[in-house]
Structures are given as structure tokens and as C-alpha cells.
Amino acid sequence: MGIASDVKKAAELVRKALDARHAKQEIRHAIAARAPFRQRQFRIAVYFADGEVNMYQLRQWYRPLVELAQAHPVIVMARNATGAAAILKDNALPVAYVPAVRDIERSLAEQDIRIVLYVNQNTRNFQMFRYGERWHVFINHGESDKMYMTTNQYKAYDYALIAGQAARERLGRTLWDFDLDRRTIEIGRPQADHYSGTLPYTPDDRTVVLYAPTWEGDRPSAHYGSIRSHGEALVSALLATGRHRVIYRPHPRSGVVDAEFGAANQRIIAALQAANTSDPDAHHVYDDGPDLGWQLAAADVAIADISAMVYDRLAAGKPLLITRPVDPAAEVDEGGYLSACEWLRAEDAPRIVEEVERVQADPEAAARLHHWVSHYFGDTTPGAATARFHAAIEQLMAKWDEWSQRAPQR
């Protein structure tokens, strides 16, 4: 077992090295083909130190940031070769590839970066924190009640842009001596104003169910993934009716830790393919694309694990079931929406058709949903969150002007 494990690890290291080498070649070609950036062209940087596997954390911010760039030019500072190559290929925002600290320093010297935005808690964020005379702002890659959302790392940033009152209460319960009023700004969910993607089927009378499980997690406290415990049973039941269309969007990291979890994921994908072969009109969807939004808007009912996807769907204000983790060590914060959500336990997964019909028809469930949508995101009128996001940036720009005027001239 030990030798096999070592061989597997060695093969993975070789694969990663080859991926990085190929990515660096792509980066060199892309940078050589583009015009050089102007001096002091950008005022906002998005710092991204992850590789391609975590691109979902950045991609959901593309459209809000592109719109923001009309007022304040935005550049992505990418540390990892595969991440930088993916961003360049996406061609959504300008990219500076800064693998070494000296590259960061050169970019900061060339540009007029006043605000640095962070979408995750990569440990290499700390290398960027050393640079003062600018605001370091955590914007996260989603809203949820996972333990990740109350990490003490919030204190490392000058400010955090949070979704709403629920986030404020969550941080207030957990972080000691943290000035919430001064260091957090509520903006709602601006990504919900920019749902993207094209519907891959023609709507009909089928009930559309989105199943969007998270990955298995890398420690017991984060064992929220339901693919093994719930997924196969619920997908099988929905495929059998002929009245439902399944959109299956698993987390891109599904199976990276637990091979059996990954095998269950592959069996679900195969079951969708077999169902479509048997009934070409079914149009079940295995969705691994970069666009997020059309799924949330199209689904009549969504099923999600405890993850940011719960709150992406919550912002859409439509029926939602949440899988109850089977591992008792999984940390479940039941002080917020999870105290009143519609739970789906593993033993009830084979009865998913009844559960789907219940949440669609129950007026009490609808009333609870409306309450929690407001509590987590505030005003969800189209455009409202984007306006708050832009107002927060303008507030920070004004503070930058204030502090830069106080600073002694060099």
C-alpha cells in the first residue's frame, strides 16, 4: 500500500510539473502577442495565487469586475502558472503573471494599485499583505455558513465586503475584538446581477432539478459532500420518472481526496448519459462549464450541499433542498439559514421526488425562503447588489485619497 501510494504521489508531482511547464509556455506566447500595459493604467488588482483547479473562485467575479473596470481599471495579478494561463485564455480581464515577489514589486511600481481584492484565503496572500499604501480587501468567492466563512484570517485584511446581515452576525459571534462596523461593508451578491451561460436545452413541461454537490473535503469538519451518501440514490430516482430533467454540477475537486467519492461521481455522470441515450428528449445535463447562473435561474428546485452554492441559489429566491452531512464530525452552523432550511437526509434521498414536490407546493417553506433571502442578501432587486458593490469601491477610493494626503511626501 505504501509503495503504491508513493508511486501515485510521484506520478501526480510529475503531472503537475508538466502542466506547469505547458502553462508557462502558453503564458509567454500570450504575453508576447499582446501590447504592453501602460504605466499607471490600473487602480484595482485582483490577487489570485491559485492554480487552474480553483478558477471557479475567480470566474464568478469576472462580470462584476468587468463592469467595475469601466470606472476603475482592474488587473488580475496571478501567481500560479496554470491559473495565469487559464485567466489569459478566458480573456475576461487583463493579467499580470507575477510568480515571484520581485514580479509583484515590479507590477506595483509600474501601476497605480490602490485596492487589492482577494477571492480566497490562499496562504500566499500573506506575501501581498506586506505592501502598504493601498487597501487589502477580502471579497470571497461566495456566501455560506461553512466554518471557512468565520476564519480569523478576516483580521488580516483592511476591509471585507460581505453579503449581508447574516454574514455580519456570523462574524460577530466568532471573531473576538473585530470591528465589524468599521471593517466590513455589506454589498449583497453582485454576481446574481450577472448570471451567465446559455440554456443547453429547450424548456418543456419537465420539472428541472439542479443537483450541485460540493467535494468530499480534506478533513472531517468539512465533510459536506453528498455524492456518495445522497447523490446516486437521488439522481437515480429522478431519472426514473420521465418527468424530471437533472442538471448535475459537481464541484470540480470531487474525488481529489477520496477515490470512492470520485468513482460515485463518475457513476452519476454515466447514469445521465445512459438516460439521455434511452430518452433523447430528456436532455439531462452534466455541467462542468465555467459559466454559473443559468443553472440557478432555470432550475425549479435545487439540491445543494453545505457550500457557497446554497447561497448562490438562495439569492435566486427559488425552492432549495440542502443535504444533511452524514459525518457527525462535519461542522454545521445552525444559527442562520441552516436552522430553518429544508434538509434532505441520506435516508430520504430515494424519496427525492416527494421532497421536490413538497418544497414547490408548501407555502410555509416559501415564506421561510423569502425571509432568509432578505436576511442574507438584503435587496435582491436586479442591479441593487451591483450598485452597493460599486458604492463600496468608491468609498474605499475616497479613503485612499484621504490617507494618501496624510502621508508624508518622499
Describe it.
This protein is an alpha/beta fold and 410 residues long. It contains 15 helices and 13 strands. Strands 3-2-1-4-5-6-7 form a seven-stranded parallel β-sheet. The longest helix has 32 residues, at 2-33. It is globular, with a radius of gyration of 22 Å. The model has no long low-confidence stretch (mean pLDDT 92).
- Please give the largest β-sheet: 7 strands, parallel
Give start-end ranges of low-pLDDT stretches. Answer: none
Please provide the count of β strands. Answer: 13
Counted by DSSP, the helix tally is 15
For the termini, the CA-CA separation is: 62 Å
Mean pLDDT: 92
Helical percent range? 40-55%
Q: Rough shape?
A: globular
Classification by helices and strands? alpha/beta
- Specify Rg, calculated over alpha carbons: 22 Å
Q: How much of the sequence is in beta strands?
A: 5-15%
Biggest sheet strand order reads: 3-2-1-4-5-6-7
> What's the helix-strand series?
HEHHEHEHEHEEHHEEHEHEHEHEEHHH
